[in-house]
Amino acid sequence: MPAHPRPTVRLRRLAGSLGRLRTARGLSREDVAEATGINKATLYRIEKAKVRPQARTLAAMLTLYEVEPEEQRALTKLLKDSSQSGWWQAYTDELPEEYSAYIEFENEARSVWNYESLYIPGLLQSEDYARAVIPGGMPSLSREEVDRRVQVRMERQAILDRDRTFHLWAICDEAAIHRAVGGPTVMRDQLLHLVSATERPNVTLQVVPFDTGAHPGMPGSFVVLQFPGDPSVVYIDSMAGDLFLEEEADVHRYTGLYEHLRAVAISPDATRQLLTRVASEYSARGGAGDG
Asked: What integer is the mean pLDDT of 112-128?
């Protein structure tokens, strides 16, 4: 049987907003069905992003929920844009569904808070680092699959230039900059690439130094994606699989965790100094470790 099309992030955001608006008005789906004539099963599917509502259906819901005109226009635009495909759609047959969904969330976000315990954050990886780290973490990939993953990672980074309203705040453990992925030359170039990236007005980078000792980010990496006018989403990539957390309590917990990491990490200026010093150490090691 043909696979069901995946809901776009815009459709998910619209669905989530409609569910919250109905709940805020104290209405059940039965109440909405009685007031608008919209089938209760259809309402359920709309709120779960399983179907796109028709324009007149959306208008009836927004009128019933007494939504302000400005928010009505924003939600109507979400519906209009919800069927649009992004550049990543060309790769969806080759990427895990969760990763494709993450890329779409990332592309829609206005800010991304990314903590990495062992890796350089993906949006800040050099191509040579990505080419070394991807097969290192997924040794079963073919060379062609690695090439496609690297290409996707590089295309993701275009958001840093394409959208000046987008802001990346990245924090990584110091372990990530000392793990010689690809050898000393690759790591030297990667660290200098990070120094250059921090010159962008929409990129902030911090490192949690070794002398911090134990800290709450040690169990693993996570990303908090924040959207204009919509609740944040937490993404966790682990050995057990990818996970999206959207419950308010979960988002609050990871947001607080990120704030703690931001407080214990060294400043962006001190981070640049550390990166420059470690890059010089890799240079001193030279090609001996690259062979």
From this structure: 97
Query: 209 in helix, strand or coil?
Result: coil
How far are the Cα atoms of 9, 50, 51, 182, 245 from residue 4, in angstroms, in the given order? 15, 9, 11, 40, 22
Signed CA dihedral, 174, 241, 245, 125: sign only: positive
Q: Taking 60 as the threshold, does the pLDDT of residue 291 lie above it?
A: no
**What is the number of domains present in the chain?**
2
Sign of the C-alpha dihedral, residues 190, 195, 200, 202?
positive
| Interval 18-64: pLDDT, tens | 998 999 999 999 999 999 999 999 999 898 888 889 989 999 999 99
Same structural domain for residues 131 and 56? Answer: no
163 and 67, same domain (yes or no): no
Q: 186: how many CB neighbours lie within 10 A of its CB?
A: 21
Report pLDDT digits (tens) over 77-88: 878 876 665 666
For 29, the 3-state DSSP assignment is helix
As a whole number of angstroms, the distance between CA 80 and CA 83 comes to 7
Token pair for 124: 């800040």
161 and 189 share one domain: yes
Phi and psi based region of residue 229 (left: phi greater than 0; alpha: psi -120 to 50; beta: remaining): left
pTM: 0.78
Task: Say which residues have a Cβ less than 8 Å from residue 249's Cβ, sequence separation at least 6.
Answer: none
- Domain hosting residue 43, numbered range: 9-81
Q: What is d(CA 136, CA 134) in angstroms, rounded to the nearest whole number? A: 5
1 belongs to a structural domain:
no
